[in-house]
């Protein structure tokens, strides 16, 4: 049975720099410091890649509220192939909904 890591015995813990930056980004977002948030993400090359509410985000997708979904997707740093897949889904679903008279 192994004991705690040596660093925790001395009261010192290692934290990844990206985790600290994500905490600062979260603070900026919660306090509406959007310019600071964007600048820090760009400079540190660390993205939060979160949406405000996963439940609301999924509901917006299910209900086809693309005017709400797309701005949130634009704020995420997704690989290009995933981003293209999202836009393709929107195009396909949007076309179906238009044909149904939505």
Fold blueprint:
Elements: H1 6-9, H2 17-30, H3 34-44, H4 54-62, H5 66-74, H6 80-99
Helix pairs in contact: 2-3
Name the descriptors:
single chain, 102 residues, mainly alpha, 2 domains, 0% strand
Give a structural overview:
With 102 residues, the protein is mostly helical. The chain folds into two domains: 35 residues, no CATH class; 52 residues, no CATH class. It contains six helices and no strands.
The count of helical stretches stands at: 6
Give the CA-based shape.
elongated
The helix-strand sequence is HHHHHH
Major sheet: size, sense and barrel closure?
A: none
The total number of structural domains is 2
- What class, by secondary structure content? mainly alpha
Number of strands: 0
Q: Determine the strand fraction and express it as a percent band.
A: under 5%
Mean pLDDT: 84
Share of helix, binned: 55-70%
Based on CA atoms alone, the radius of gyration comes out at 20 Å
Terminal residue distance:
63 Å
| Low-pLDDT segments, ≥5 res | none
Short description:
66% of the residues lie in helices and 0% in strands. With 102 residues, it is mainly alpha-helical.
């Amino acid at each position: 049975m192994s004991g705690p890591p040596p660093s925790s015995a001395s009261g010192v813990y290692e934290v990844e720099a990206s985790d600290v930056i994500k905490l600062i980004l979260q603070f900026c977002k919660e306090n509406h410091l959007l310019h600071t948030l964007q600048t820090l993400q760009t400079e540190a090359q660390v993205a939060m890649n979160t949406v405000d509410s996963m439940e609301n985000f999924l509901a917006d997708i299910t209900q086809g509220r693309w005017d709400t979904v797309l701005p949130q997707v634009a704020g995420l740093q997704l690989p290009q192939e995933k981003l293209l897949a999202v836009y393709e889904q929107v195009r396909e679903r949007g076309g179906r909904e238009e044909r149904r008279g939505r």
